[in-house]
Amino acid sequence: GFKRRYIFPYMKFKMIYKADATSIRAPRINQQAAIFYNALKSLMEEFDNSENKEAIIENYSAPFHFEIKNLTSFRLTKVLVADKLPPTNEQLLRACLLLASMLDFLLNSPASPYYALAPDEIKVFRNDPVHKETPLYTVELLNTVSMLKRI
To answer: What is the spatial distance between Cα 119 and Cα 4, in angstroms, rounded to a whole number?
Structure first.
């Protein structure tokens, strides 16, 4: 299915029916995560081993600034503040490297907790808590604003 082909390459689950193998023009998220992680890791290794750090990352010690404030910029700022790290471009890149590392592991490692369940335990649809094999086609509305305020 889509999840296995484009997101979780090691996921195994029972198919209820055999779907046609239609190809879509979409990036494989697990491959994109690996490419981003490896590029950022390479950049930070080069930065750490360089005598002239400014040649690798301009203004690395300057405070980072997001031109457009959004949920991602808010969360990254909160991560750095919570860890009591200086709000510099270098620390922002290091935080992004940690997040990219985690995402790459979760999607691309067979040891990921995402792949720890047996195929019988994985449901590829939302299901009724009582009748596990019954798909749910509607879900309860969540108050995402209050959830995000807790972060």
So the answer is: 13
